[in-house]
Amino acid sequence: MASGSARYLRYILFAIFGLTVVYFISSSSTPTLSGSTSAWTGIPVKAGTAPESAATGTTPNPPPALPPATADGARMNATFVTLARNSDIWEIARSIRQVEDRFNRKFHYDWVFVNDQPFDETFKKVTTSLVSGKTHYGQIPKEHWSFPDFIDEGRAEKVREDMAQRQIIYGDSISYRHMCRFESGFFFRQPLMMNYEWYWRVEPSVELFCDIDYDPFKYMADHKKKYSFVLSLYEYVETIPTLWDSTKKFMKEHPEHIAEDNSMGFLSDNGGETYNNCHMWSNFEIGNLNWLRSKPYIDYFNSLDRDGGFFYERWGDAPVHSIAAGLLLQKDEIHFFDDIAYYHVPFTHCPTGEQRRIDLKCHCNPKDNFDWKGYSCTSRYFEINNLKKPEGYEAEMD
Ligand SMILES: Nc1nc2c(ncn2[C@@H]2O[C@H](COP(=O)(O)OP(=O)(O)OP(=O)(O)O)[C@@H](O)[C@H]2O)c(=O)[nH]1
Ligand SMILES: [Mg+2]
């Protein structure tokens, strides 16, 4: 009896010990939201990874189910950014869904939305539900979305009337001009953007056609890239008749800002005498915000802004960003993301090469690929950078 009781006691002690071990193991793997460590990865979060406050609100999302799948688990100090109106909600919802499905559901980067008007509840509710990172909503200050005092509004109005008559696309629009000026000179200095180092611009109604299983922000940082593109083309010259004259004036005034090994060969066919109108399409961009906030870029933007072409012509942010990247950056700081397959009406970038498209699970039609067509400037990029064009490009030329 006595030895039987001792055996029972031993069983009970073993059971208590076992339960205690199980308890400690399970409680130490339960995520905790406090401290400076990522709750889901155990990886220390870099200071300034995300802004703490928003100009008009921040909506935290529930914790993601999966840890970020970057190569070494490190997260970049990066965000998506979208300029949109409340009426763009269903078009931007489609873009977000694509970006999430192809990339961000594995990475959970934040998304900053900016607007010249306050965002409404529907916009915030729907976008927050779709983005797997944190969402932030900001209103653009008046001085970044209005005529500067040095602009003659009467002259600007006459230009709009004339462009309307000549049926130049968006030629009669004031808001389109504010948009182009904002994207050229101000989006990267909004309070919500100031804590980030990298951005990925997304517009309404764009499509992504292939899986992106690595972190393009990290790729940019690791390879010392500052600006990137997927589509390039010739600008509609009627919208920028004097942009190159203004640029040449800037180059003369600020030779110290011009990079030695620049991409002038992409922008000009005669060593800089005239502009060939080639630009990288800025509705897609992954880039470095510190470069846009640097003195060379700001000096260039201020010089263009003073010359008035955002209002006296209809300068687009795409040629402005491209000329800046082409002249102020070393040519190897500009990256072509061949593996990011993309559509913005009316052009498609679909990677060349069947095996590549299969590997990336692409669903674009290779016939739609714009890269090697006559109106694309991507060949020039390959030529000035001595890059080998992918096998099979000749078959996609027309
Ligand atoms: N808040 C706000 N956003 C705008 C306004 N106009 C354009 N946008 C945004 O600015 C970006 C560029 O505008 P788009 O109308 O797409 O210009 P686009 O790409 O040259 O022309 P589309 O071929 O029509 O797409 C988009 O993200 C728009 O949602 C505006 O007046 N207010
Ligand atoms: Mg657009």
From TrEMBL:
TM annotation in the entry:
7-26
Q: Which family does it belong to?
A: Belongs to the glycosyltransferase 15 family.
Q: Please give the superkingdom of this protein's source.
A: Eukaryota
Q: Which residues constitute the signal peptide according to the record?
A: none
Catalytic residues (positions): E285
The entry's protein name is Putative Alpha-1,2 mannosyltransferase KTR1
Q: Does the keyword Membrane apply?
A: yes
Annotated Gene Ontology cellular components are:
Golgi apparatus; membrane
Annotated region (Disordered), positions in chain: 50-71
Which SUPFAM superfamilies does the record match to this protein? Nucleotide-diphospho-sugar transferases
Keywords of this entry: Glycosyltransferase, Membrane, Transferase, Transmembrane, Transmembrane helix
